[in-house]
Design brief:
Blueprint: H1 9-22, H2 39-50, H3 57-70, E1 100-101, E2 113-114, H4 130-150, H5 153-167, H6 202-211, H7 219-238, H8 240-246, H9 251-266, H10 270-288, H11 296-299, H12 304-324, H13 340-347, H14 371-380, H15 385-388, H16 395-399
Antiparallel strand pairs: 1-2
Helix pairs in contact: 1-14, 3-4, 4-5, 4-6, 5-7, 6-9, 7-8, 7-9, 9-10, 9-12, 10-12, 12-13
Domain Alginate lyase: 79-346
Keywords: Lyase, Signal
Signal peptide: 1-27
Length: 407
């Protein structure tokens, strides 16, 4: 559901970000232990909320509205899916490869055939878990942010209930593997490409870090979630699917590294997180981004603009993990100039839905998921020019993204 826009969102955003850009360094304060969300920006924004500054009132009203809606999202772990005759344990995560469709030339529809870029609505059915995972991740993130900024323990309690159902309760928690993600009927019961779906758990890790000081969260919750992510991390690194996805040369490979690095840091394995982030320059940036900032492998897809910005999002995660580990991927550049910043500069003007990437056709494109990327770039590079890329976006689109105070 799209909320009605409120006035002057872009002006409000600029005020908040400029204040973060020009604020002195923080020392001796209790910063949140977030991984991707900026702890410093979170803290400064919270101080402005507590001071009841006029410029943050509209943003907080929007966040509270989102949180109140998230309070009504049902707790639906993987065990909430209908029982089927697949023979698979109900706690196993299952999803359908989104671009695979029944073969119209086959009486049974099997084997499914690939139609790249055309999403099969069957993938969003309640038979599969991807919709539940997405709804949980969005609700937990929104509720955790709302708790952090308001102190309302009801938000923390509801977010904690979702997390416990998915990762802590032995009766409902998801098996920490993706053997049956993005299945392709008639071909297999699961594919390595399904690993990209748990990128949705990265903001959940940030949300849990925010929830840790709340009354609703317990030490047992922290122990059990760390155990779950440790087991899942082990599966990612050792399974056949995980090794195959790690070898991918496009956004799938970037997101694999982003997940490993973020989950490792979440469970306090800084050595592994630093190792993965430290390899990202030569392993991912230099192999996927050309000196002019373009990404040819993503441009070759049927939804090139989505793939380009989606890949940039993964690079943002890796760079954020690098920050926590004393590495600077934001400013890393190869000898020939390949860098995250070059890719942001090249593609930023095409965040405007009416302005497709050079050499590609106009197509449906939702810029909303990538708004935080450019807000973060404005902070990292101390350059409000990155906010200019948001100017063509309509107020209704911007009004859907309330977490800018966390960047």
């Amino acid at each position: 559901m799209i909320r009605r826009p409120f006035p002057c969102r872009t002006t409000l955003l600029a005020v908040l970000l400029v204040s973060c850009l020009t604020a002195p360094a923080l020392a001796g304060v209790n910063l949140p232990r977030t991984i991707v969300l900026s702890p410093e920006a979170l803290y400064r924004s919270r101080q402005r909320v507590l001071a009841r500054e006029r410029t943050v009132r509209a943003a907080m009203a929007a966040l509270k509205a989102d949180a109140d809606a998230a309070m009504k999202v049902p707790v639906e772990p993987v065990t909430a899916k209908p029982r089927s005759g697949s023979g698979l344990p109900v706690r196993d995560y299952r999803s359908l490869a989104p671009y695979w469709w029944p073969d119209p030339a086959s009486r049974t529809g099997l084997p499914y055939v690939r139609r790249d870029g055309e999403r099969n609505p069957e993938a969003d059915s309640e038979r599969y878990d991807r919709g539940r995972l997405t709804r949980m991740a969005r609700a937990v993130r929104t509720l955790a942010l709302a708790w952090y900024f308001t102190g309302n323990e009801l938000y923390a309690a509801r977010a904690s209930a979702h997390v416990r159902a998915w990762f802590c309760d032995p009766a409902t928690r998801m098996v920490p593997s993706l053997e049956h993600a993005q299945r392709r009927p008639g071909h297999d019961q699961g594919n390595r490409t399904g690993i990209i779906e748990t990128a949705a758990l990265i903001p959940v890790c940030d949300a849990i870090r925010l929830l840790e000081p709340s009354k609703a969260w317990t030490r047992a919750d922290s122990r059990r979630t760390r155990e779950w992510f440790g087991q899942y991390l082990g599966w990612l690194l050792r399974s056949e699917h995980g090794r195959a996805e790690a070898a991918a040369l496009n956004n799938h490979g970037t997101w694999f590294d982003a997940q490993v690095a973020a989950f490792a840091l979440f469970r306090e394995d800084r050595e592994l997180a630093r190792e993965v982030a430290g390899l990202a320059g030569n392993r991912r940036i230099a192999t996927q981004i050309l000196p002019d900032g373009s990404m040819p492998r993503e441009l070759a897809r049927t939804r090139p603009r989505h793939c380009v910005f989606f890949n940039l999002d993964a690079f943002m995660v890796l760079a954020s993990v690098g920050e926590r580990c004393g590495l600077d991927l934001w400013h890393w550049a190869s000898p020939t100039g390949q860098s995250i910043r070059r890719a942001l500069d090249r593609n930023g003007p095409h965040l405007d839905p009416a302005d497709p990437l050079p050499g590609t056709r106009a197509a449906d494109f939702d810029p909303y998921p990538y708004v935080p990327l450019f807000r973060r770039a404005a902070l990292v590079y101390n350059d409000t020019r990155y906010l200019d890329y948001l100017v063509p976006l309509d107020e209704e689109t911007l009004a859907r993204e309330t977490s800018f105070i966390a960047y």
